[in-house]
Write a structure and sequence with these properties.
Largest sheet: 5 strands, parallel
Strand content: 5-15%
Oligomer: single chain
Number of domains: 1
Order of helices and strands: EHEHEEHEH
Number of strands: 5
Distance between the termini: 50 Å
Number of helices: 4
Strand order of the largest sheet: 1-2-3-4-5
Helix content: 25-40%
Length: 151
Amino acid sequence: MLKTLKLRGIYMEFGFDIGELVILLPEIEVLVLESPPLNYNDLRKIATNLPALRFLSVPLSTIEFPELSANDSVVAQLPITIEFNNYPFHYSYNKKLIKKTAAFVHRMWPNVNFVSSKVSGHERLSSSAQLLNSEVARLRRHHATLSRRKN
């Protein structure tokens, strides 16, 4: 039944199986998740199965980022904006965590742009997004340099 709906966006506050959701709604462009804890495999399913996704709002405080391996590869080439809900304030002070978060997300969505939640009074959310975007820009420059060296 859901496959017949032409939804362009969905907002969910409750728990669900992300694998079932992405299979049922492959044309989703906007996905806002408020509470389900996500992990590496959930983000990989989102990146792999939602090629039209342009905006993702997730509670990054619940995501555990594993170390990247050589098997991790770019999944989605199109631009995407990722917004933080509940991004822990202490992340903006933890450079290692900022680098790990940026590297992990950039690996799946190289054309990512991080934005901060619109929650008023949370300036550190904005600074976290700025730090992540700076790290992604550094990663892009690094990959461009490596590509030029190969040629």
